[in-house]
Amino acid sequence: MMRIIPIFINILIVGLFLYSKLLPHKDKLNPQYKKIFEFFNGLFSPLFNFSKKRIKPFQVGVGLSVDMTQIVLLIIFLIFLNFF
Q1: pTM of the predicted model as reported, rounded to 2 decimal places
Q2: CB atoms within 10 A of CB 19
């Protein structure tokens, strides 16, 4: 059981990366990949909606800011990964 948890966390990390890259192109995905995307969308979308109310974007330039919710979630996943 303890070996499954790090594998699951690694899958979530890869899923988070692919989710962030494919989100702007979700309408163009093939049906098989769209199902996988929708699975990760169902996981991450509620987390992002909840955390966007609490975590403000980080301003990196004039009129340019970075959404910190994905970075914070990645840090949380990496911390969990180090525990197992």
Answers
A1: 0.84
A2: 21
